[in-house]
């Protein structure tokens, strides 16, 4: 890994971590939403450094594009979004921080145990083969979780539509 | 001489990348000058008037003068604006446009970055445009801007889906996500547009492209008569110029993308490839302008209903046909 690549990687890491911190630390919710953009781009940058171009494009398309916009759109329809005095946590705060702390410890442990075998050289990765393998695995071994995810998303969508429209049916007829 | 230059840049790939980036960014800034002039001339022709006439021959220098004026004008920022986001929104829009030009093949070998997932990349970065519109609309602290921004997002996201589905039809047909490979396939096997599922895909793409670049009948996000031009109401001077430039450069890009996907990109007899690319692009831009200056604007609910209830199902079925007929 050359000095330039190392410098890029460091800059990318700093950007990603700072924007991730900003997302949770900023008091203005809309600002927090916009800080998601450099964060998602940073994650995409890691994929690019590992020459996983396909994952990079998906990261741009799904996270930096679609998820980002949907989150912002939802935020703009939220009440009190600009109020800096709203509490930043809810009653699940303790449980959630316990779970994420556990997750972090587990991940750090996993990385630490495999430290010797990890390499960061782009040449070691055959991106196209990985993408092909990914596609095959999604439609063979992991087809059930894959399909279940789509059912989950579909039910989430239906639920959202139901919640959004149930009390307002008369209004729509009035408009027509 | 030329060999020496090529050798110099081969030894300094980083410098070469920098040169390409500068050329691409300047190209993205220059293209709107031409497109806006053509737009005003076409609008004049359709509405039986002359259009710009006085600055330069046939008014060709009018947009140059306009651009200079915009760059020199005072940059006004509203008091209640969310300053930091207000400042960067136009540049995000512009960067998203430059990034999409990055993977566009103009002629054989004339592509700034050869990417094997170019199609996905283009769709991904085009969504930054949506983010910048939302950012501008929100940070202006103006109800018209915010309404324009929200409308833009609802509309752009709704039309993004049928657009992606119709682009995917081409991807399945040619079996590649790289724009260069898609064009090369067409050079060998004939243009994609002659195949029935792709023909429908091209039609859907055309409708969605109109919506993506906010053209009448889909110009709801910046409806001048309802929203005082929507998300960019509060922008002035150079920042406004960047929004404007990115919109017209996007206009160019979306047609160039269509040329590569459906009309064989640089493919054509006699004339050199680069001329064919530009010829196809400008013919399509003319059609876009023709549509813009003819039908009236629709209502937002009509636009959204059209996208979800007609375009999405049709493009889904069409995608199935394309997969059935295309994949070998």
Tell me what you see in this structure:
The complex is a heterodimer of chains A (176) and B (328). In chain A, 75% of the residues lie in helices and 0% in strands. Chain A is built from seven helices and no strands. The relative contact order of chain A is 0.07. With 328 residues, chain B is an all-alpha fold. In chain B, 71% of the residues lie in helices and 0% in strands. In chain B, helix 4 (83-102) runs parallel beside helix 10 and helix 5 packs antiparallel against helix 6 (143-174). The A-B interface holds A 4, 30-31, 34, 37, 53-54, 56-61, 64-66, 68-70, 72-73, 76, 128 and B 14, 82, 85, 115-117, 120-121, 123-128, 130-131, 134-135, 138, 146, 150, 153-154, 157, 160, 177.
Relative strand content of chain B: under 5%
- Low-pLDDT regions of chain A: none
Mean pLDDT of chain B: 84
Structural Rg of chain A: 21 Å
Q: Rg of chain B from C-alpha positions?
A: 20 Å
| Multimerization status | heterodimer
Shape of chain A: globular
For the secondary structure, the number of strands of chain B is 0
SSE layout:
The complex is a heterodimer of chains A (176) and B (328).
Chain A: H1 3-25, H2 29-49, H3 53-76, H4 93-113, H5 127-139, H6 143-165, H7 169-175
Helix pairs in contact in A: 1-2, 2-3
Chain B: H1 2-11, H2 13-46, H3 62-72, H4 83-102, H5 118-139, H6 143-174, H7 179-189, H8 196-212, H9 224-227, H10 237-262, H11 273-292, H12 300-326
Short description:
Chain A has 176 residues and is an all-alpha fold. Chain A has helices spanning 3-25, 29-49, 53-76, 93-113, 127-139, 143-165, 169-175. In chain B, helix 2 (13-46) crosses helix 3, helix 4 (83-102) runs antiparallel to helix 5 and helix 10 crosses helix 11 (273-292).
């Amino acid at each position: 890994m050359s000095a330039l690549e190392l410098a890029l990687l460091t800059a990318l890491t700093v950007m990603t971590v700072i924007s991730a911190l900003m997302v949770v630390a900023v008091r203005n919710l809309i600002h927090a939403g916009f800080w998601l953009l450099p964060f998602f781009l940073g994650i995409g940058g890691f994929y690019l450094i590992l020459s996983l171009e396909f994952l990079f494009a998906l990261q741009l398309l799904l996270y930096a594009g679609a998820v980002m916009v949907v989150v912002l759109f939802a935020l703009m329809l939220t009440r009190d979004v600009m109020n800096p005095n709203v509490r930043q946590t809810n009653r699940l705060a303790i449980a959630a921080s316990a779970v994420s702390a556990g997750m972090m410890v587990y991940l750090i442990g996993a990385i630490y145990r495999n430290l010797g075998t990890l390499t960061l050289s782009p040449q070691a990765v055959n991106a196209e083969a990985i993408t092909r393998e990914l596609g095959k695995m999604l439609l063979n071994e992991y087809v059930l979780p894959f399909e279940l995810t789509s059912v989950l998303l579909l039910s989430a969508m239906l639920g959202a539509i139901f919640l959004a429209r149930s009390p307002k049916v008369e209004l729509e007829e009035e408009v027509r | 001489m030329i060999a020496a230059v090529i050798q110099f840049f081969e030894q300094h790939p980083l410098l070469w990348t920098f040169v390409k980036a500068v050329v691409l960014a300047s190209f993205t800034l220059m293209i709107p000058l031409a497109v806006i002039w053509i737009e005003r001339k076409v609008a004049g022709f359709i509405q039986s008037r002359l259009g710009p006439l006085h600055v330069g021959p046939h008014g060709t220098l009018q947009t140059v003068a306009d651009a200079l004026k915009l760059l020199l004008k005072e940059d006004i920022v509203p008091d209640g604006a969310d300053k930091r986001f207000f400042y960067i929104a136009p540049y995000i829009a512009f960067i998203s446009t430059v990034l999409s030009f990055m993977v566009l093949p103009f002629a054989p070998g004339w592509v700034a970055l050869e990417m094997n997932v170019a199609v996905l990349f283009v769709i991904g970065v085009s969504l930054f445009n949506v983010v910048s519109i939302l950012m501008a609309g929100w940070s202006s602290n103006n109800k018209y801007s915010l309404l324009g921004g929200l409308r833009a997002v609802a509309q752009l996201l709704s039309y993004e889906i049928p657009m992606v589905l119709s682009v995917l039809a081409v991807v399945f047909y040619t079996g590649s996500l790289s724009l260069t490979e898609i064009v090369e396939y067409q050079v060998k096997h004939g243009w994609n547009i002659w195949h029935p599922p792709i023909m429908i895909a091209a039609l859907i793409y055309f409708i969605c492209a109109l919506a993506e670049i906010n053209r009448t009948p889909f110009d709801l996000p910046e409806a001048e008569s309802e929203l005082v031009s929507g998300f960019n109401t509060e922008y002035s001077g150079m920042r406004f110029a960047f929004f404007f430039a990115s919109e017209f450069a996007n206009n160019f890009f979306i047609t160039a993308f269509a040329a590569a996907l459906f009309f064989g990109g640089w493919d054509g007899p006699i004339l050199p490839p680069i001329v064919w690319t530009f010829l196809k692009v400008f013919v399509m831009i003319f059609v876009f302008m023709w549509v813009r200056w003819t039908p009236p604007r629709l209502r937002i609910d009509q636009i959204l209903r059209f996208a979800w209830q007609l375009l999405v199902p049709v493009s889904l079925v069409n995608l199935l046909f394309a997969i059935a007929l295309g994949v070998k």
